[in-house]
Amino acid sequence: MTTSIDIKRVEKSKISSVDFDNLPFGSVYSDHMLTCDYKNGKWQSPKIEPFAPFSLDPSAKIFHYGQSIFEGMKAYKDAEENILLFRPTDNCKRLNKSAERLVIPPIPEEIFMDGLKALLEVDSDWIPKNEGSSLYVRPFMFATGNGFHASPADAYKFVICTAPSGAYFGGKVKVLIEERYARAANGGVGYAKAGGNYAAQFYPTQLAIEKGYNQVIWTDDNTHQFIEEAGAMNIFIRINDTLITSPTSDRILDGITRKSILQIAEDNGIATEVRKISVGEDVEAAKSGSLKEMFGAGTAAVISPIAGFGYQENDFDLPELENPYAAKLKKLITDIQTNKSEDPYGWRVFV
Ligand code: PLP
Ligand code: COI
C-alpha cells in the first residue's frame, strides 16, 4: 500500500447490536467510513474515521445541481477468513467514467483501492460469513463546493461506507414493462451511476408497485419497443436455450455482473446473444412457450429471477423450471466470489 491513511477508530464498536442472522439490505452500517476531500485542485489524504453524519453548507452544489455518483460492490469472507473482492478495479474505472460525465474530478485508483482495502481491514469483523450475506460496499462522490451558479463545484468528497447485508429481494419478482417513462435517453447519463438516474426511477416504479408489480422493466426512451434494463439491474432473457441480453449503450449501465455472467455462461455451455430484444419478441415467446426465464443481474441482487411480467394490461407468467439457468449461473458466480471454486478469470482480489 502506498497511500498514507490516517485512521481514527471508534471508542466502542456497535457490532454486538447487529443480528447477523437476519440482515436487511443496506440499512445497518459498519463502524467506520473512508473519506477523502478534493480541494484546491487536488485530492487530499484519505482518512478512516467513525461512521457519522457530515456537515455541509446549504449552498453545496450537491443539493442544487445533483453532482453525485456512486458504486455498488461486495466484500466476502471465505472459510479461512480471507477477505475477497470481486473485480474491484472495474468499479473504480466505472466510478471515474461516471465522474467524467458529471464533471467530477476522477479519484486516483490508488486512493480507491488502498482506501477500500484499509477500510475492510479495520471493519473486517463486519463482513458476514453466512451464505447469502456479504458486506455491501458503497463508494460515492459528491459536490461539497458551494454556489448557486449552475456550474461544476470546486470541491468534492469521496466516501466509502459499508453495510453488512442480506438479500436485496425476498423472492421472485413480478415486473411491469414500461410504456411511458424512461430512465435514460441517448446522449444522457444512463450509462453513469449518477444518483439522479435512480431518483428518476422512483416515480414510475411507485406507479408499478401500486399496480401490484415489484419493479419496472425499462424500455428505450424513443419507441418503448426494446427491453433495456430491469430496475437497477441488467436484464437477461432466455428464449429456448439461448440467453439474451441487450447491448450496453448511452442508456444502459455496463454491469459487472452482466459481463461476468456472459463469460461464465459461454464457458459453461450456455449459448448467449448480445442483441436488442423487442417487447414483441418477449411477448410472443411468452405466448408460444419458448420464453423460459427472465432475470435481473446486478451486484446488490446478484441474480433475481422474474416470476412474470405485465404489458399492456396483460400478465404473463414464466414457467417454474427444475434447473433454471438463473440458479446455475448464480451458484457459479457466487462460488467464484466467495472462493468456493476456481477463478479461471482472475476476478477475485484478496485484501
Ligand atoms: N443497471 C443499473 C441501472 C444498476 O444500477 C446496476 C447496479 O449496479 C446494474 C445495472 C448492475 O451493475 P453491476 O453488475 O455492476 O452491479
Ligand atoms: C448495485 O447493484 O450494487 C446497485 O448499485 C444497485 C443499487 C441501486 C442498490
Explain what this protein looks like in three dimensions:
The protein is an alpha+beta fold and 351 residues long. It is built from seven helices and 20 strands. Strands 1, 2, 3, 4, 5, 6, 7, 8, 9 and 20 form a ten-stranded mixed β-sheet that branches. A six-stranded mixed beta barrel has the order 10-11-12-13-17-18, surrounded by four helices. The protein is globular, with a radius of gyration of 21 Å. 2-OXO-4-methylpentanoic acid binds at residues 72, 198, 232, 298-300. 2-OXO-4-methylpentanoic acid binds next to loops.
Ligand kinds: pyridoxal-5'-phosphate, 2-OXO-4-methylpentanoic acid
Q: Which percent range fits the helix content?
A: 10-25%
Strand and helix order = EEEEHEEEHHEEEHEEEEHEEHEEEHE
Protein structure class: alpha+beta
Taking the sheet with the most strands, its summary is:
10 strands, mixed
Structure annotation, total helices? 7
Q: Categorize the overall geometry.
A: globular
SSE layout:
Layout: E1 6-7, E2 32-39, E3 42-43, E4 47-50, H1 61-65, E5 68-70, E6 73-77, E7 83-86, H2 88-101, H3 109-122, E8 134-143, E9 156-165, E10 173-177, H4 195-210, E11 215-219, E12 226-230, E13 233-239, E14 242-245, H5 256-267, E15 271-274, E16 277-278, H6 279-288, E17 291-298, E18 302-311, E19 314-317, H7 325-337, E20 348-350
Parallel strand pairs: 1-4, 10-11, 10-18, 14-15
Antiparallel strand pairs: 2-3, 2-4, 2-9, 5-8, 6-7, 6-8, 7-20, 8-9, 11-12, 12-13, 12-16, 13-14, 13-17, 17-18, 18-19
Bound molecules: pyridoxal-5'-phosphate and 2-OXO-4-methylpentanoic acid.
